[in-house]
Structures are given as C-alpha cells and as structure tokens.
Amino acid sequence: MALRYSELDREDAALRAMLIPLWPLLKTDNLVELSVVRPGQVGLEIAGSGYRFEPAPHLDYNYWYLLCQVLANKSGVNFHTVNQPRISTALPEGHRFEAMMGKNVDQEISVSIRLKRQVSLSLEDFGLQGALKDRIIQSIILGANVIVSGGTSSGKTTFLNRLINYIPSETRILTVEDTRELDIPHVNQKNYIVSRNESNPAIDYAAIIDHLLRSRPDMIIAGEVSVANAFPIIRMLNSGHAGFMCTIHANTPDLALTAAIPQNIQLAGGNSLGIAKLLYQTIDIVLQLHRTQTGARVVTEVLFPKNKESLVVEIS
Fold it and tell me: What are the boundaries of each domain within the chain?
C-alpha cells in the first residue's frame, strides 16, 4: 500500500523541486550572496573577489514568482505582488531569502539570498584577544545583556552565534526571529518565528515576547532588532528579566543605543522618549562589527554602557 504524503510533505516536495535549478549556483565556491536585479540574470558575490553577473535565462520572472509563492506557503505567510509584495524567510539549508516583486521595485524584482556559510571562527578571528576577550566571555557566562551592532554583511549573526557558545550548557534559552538563523547548541531551548512582513500576523512580537517571559527563560535571544520588534524587545529589558542578546544595524555602539533602536520604535509609531537612557542602564555590552575591504569581519569597538566605557579595537 502506497504511503500518502501529508500536506507538509507535499510542500517540502514542491520546494525541493523549485530549488533544483537554483542549487548549482548556491553551491558556487566561496559564495557569499546571490542577488537578482533583473529576470534571467544573477549576481554572485564571491568572498574576496566581489560581484560577478551571469546570465540565467531559466531563472526568469515566473520562476522567482513561483518560488516566492512556494516559500510563502511553506512559511505560512502571504505573498502577493500587489497586496504583500515582500517575503523574508529562509531556504532549507538556512540561507536567508529576501525578495520583493511587483510595481514597488525597478524591473519588478529584487532578490537577495545570503548564504549561511559553514565557517568555524573564533573570537580571535574577529579581532578579540587577551583581557578584553576574557572579560566579554565572563560577562556572557554570568548572563549579560549583549547587543551586536554593525552594518549589512558585517558578520553580526555569525559573531552572535559564536558568543552563544559561551552561554553555560544548562541555560534555558528561548529565541525569537523573523528568519531562523541562530544556532543554539543547548538542550533546553525553544525557537519561535514571527513574520516580519505580514501586516496582521496571528501572533505578533508583543504576544510572543509576553509568552517568552512567562515561560521561565534564563536567556532570551531576539535575533535582529527591527521596526516590528524594537518596542516589545526594549519593554522586556525593564521586566525584571536578565539575560538577553540581539543584533542591530548601526554605525557605532553609541548610535545603536541612542539612535537606531529609538528610531525603530518611532517608525513603528511608538514613543522613544527615555529609551536611550533605559538602554544605557540595562545593556551590559555593545560590540561593533565592521567588514574590511578584504572581506574580513572584525570587532572595532566595545562599549560597556553602564559605566560609559568605550574601547577601540585595533584592526591588524
């Protein structure tokens, strides 16, 4: 008797079939990112070599539209070129998938696939050494509130995943992300996903974080702070809970606390009055990541907000 596929199995099979034309490109040696600026062409960013563009006639507009539809169905979110033209999710191997299609974007298409590269980097590889490295590790062991700041593709998530390894193994960790990117090796852990681009999700960030706080975590890791989640996350910092990590797009550690996070709250329609002061009182460490001209990702500054101590890390 033949086995019947469940609905989930059918979705997995459809996604695997849709990805067949794409996988050879994603297997390109040292690939950092695949991007699409027009149908039938792909841009490949190679580590240490920059971008090169190649014709890909089989990856036309219809292909990317169908892939977005399949990914949306798989993720349980909506996708429509008029009503919901953006999708943020992950491919099966953890590669970050970001796309927008329709009249909101030139050529009616923009796709970025950021590869989740299997690299084993130490804190020394990011430029942290000696007493400063030991101080950061000890702080994490004791349950510090930590923010990793930096620009796009500066290595924030990779670095955060490295820091997570220093959290004691018996720690109960709960995470919330819009795209699954965190690697949690701990046994007592649970991961939650909230769609970034759905206008009316069934469960939003505020509801998820309220649930997390009621689930007795030792540590909450929130992935990237965005417009959608900034206020619920910051509210959590004044809830009596200790032990928090996240990433943020910002130019400096100080601007992460005084500008980037308050601006995200303002863009969401919230009141950011007093937020910077609260962050300086509750965050223990802010580490600034920078991508050098050679493609290396390094820590350039470490801020200890509570005593307003800022340390510049020399790039070798």
Answer: 17-114, 124-312
Tell me the two tokens of residue 178.
Answer: 């819009």
CA neighbours within 13 Å on the CB side: how many for 306?
Answer: 8
DSSP string, 188-202: SEEEEE--SS-SS-S
Q: What is the CATH number of domain 17-114?
A: 3.30.450.90
- Domain 124-312 CATH superfamily: P-loop containing nucleotide triphosphate hydrolases (3.40.50.300)
Alpha-carbon distances, residue 232 vs 227, 236, 254 (angstroms): 10, 6, 21
Are residues 283 and 243 in contact, defined by beta-carbon separation less than 8 angstroms? no
pLDDT in tens, 303-315: 999 999 999 998 7
What does R_g of the chain's alpha carbons equal in angstroms?
20
pTM for this predicted structure: 0.79
In 155-237, where do the E strands start and end? 173-177, 189-193, 219-224
Q: 């349980």: which residue's tokens?
A: 76
CA distance 116 to 182: 10
Q: What is the pLDDT of residues 47-72, one digit of tens each?
A: 878 889 999 999 999 999 999 999 99
